[in-house]
């Protein structure tokens, strides 16, 4: 069985007029200077990784916040990971970490490490719980 073949359709009225600059989709071919402006000249980063949870102290951004910081604060009303924030804002992870570093220093957001659970619980604790339930 062969896969269905696509058929090219030709417009009836002709192609739409094209501008001098080719159209870009959102997030494609971004301007590197723009990311430098967003991240700032120092570019220092806090020790956060992709699974670090970020939560805002207040969803209302201060008047001095940049548009990216305001968007981060609105998104972080509930805890979100840095990977999710990067995806929602369509910004690279490195730029988001620089933004979050500035916001952590200004105490606008808090970083929480994800909860790491042990693979297996303590056997003696489980036996004590089981014996306690059997006595009921």
Describe this structure in words.
It is built from five helices and three strands. Helix 1 (32-39) packs parallel to helix 4 (93-105) and helix 3 (82-89) crosses helix 4 (93-105). The protein starts with 31 loop residues before the first helix and ends with a helix. The radius of gyration is 25 Å and the shape is flat. Helices cover 38% and strands 7% of the residues. Strands 2-1-3 form a three-stranded antiparallel beta sheet. By secondary structure, the protein is mainly α.
Which short descriptors sum up this protein?
mainly alpha; 3 strands; 136 residues
Tell me the fraction of residues in β-strands, as a range: 5-15%
- What's the order of the H and E elements? HEHEHHEH
- What is the tally of helical segments? 5
Poorly predicted parts: none
Helix/strand-derived class? mainly alpha
Ends apart, CA distance between termini:
66 Å
Using only C-alpha atoms, the radius of gyration works out to: 25 Å
Number of strands: 3
Average residue-wise pLDDT: 77
**How is the main sheet built?**
3 strands, antiparallel
Kindly state the percentage of residues in helix.
Answer: 25-40%
What shape does the CA trace take? flat
Strand order of the largest sheet: 2-1-3
In short, what is this structure?
By secondary structure, this protein is mainly alpha-helical.
Write the layout of secondary structure elements.
Elements: H1 32-39, E1 53-56, H2 67-75, E2 80-81, H3 82-89, H4 93-105, E3 109-112, H5 123-135
Antiparallel strand pairs: 1-2, 1-3
């Amino acid at each position: 069985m062969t896969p269905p073949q696509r058929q090219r359709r030709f417009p009836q009225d002709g192609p739409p007029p094209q501008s001098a600059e080719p159209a870009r989709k959102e997030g494609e071919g971004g301007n590197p200077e723009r990311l430098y402006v967003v991240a700032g000249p120092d570019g220092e980063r806090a020790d956060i990784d992709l699974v670090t949870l970020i939560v805002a102290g207040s969803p209302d951004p201060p008047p001095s916040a940049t548009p990216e910081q305001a968007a981060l604060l609105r998104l972080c009303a509930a805890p979100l990971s840095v990977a999710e924030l990067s995806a929602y804002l369509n910004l690279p992870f490195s730029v988001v970490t620089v933004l979050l570093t500035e916001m952590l220093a200004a105490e606008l957001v808090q970083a929480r490490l994800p909860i790491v659970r042990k693979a297996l619980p303590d056997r003696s604790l489980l036996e004590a719980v089981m014996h306690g339930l059997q006595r009921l």
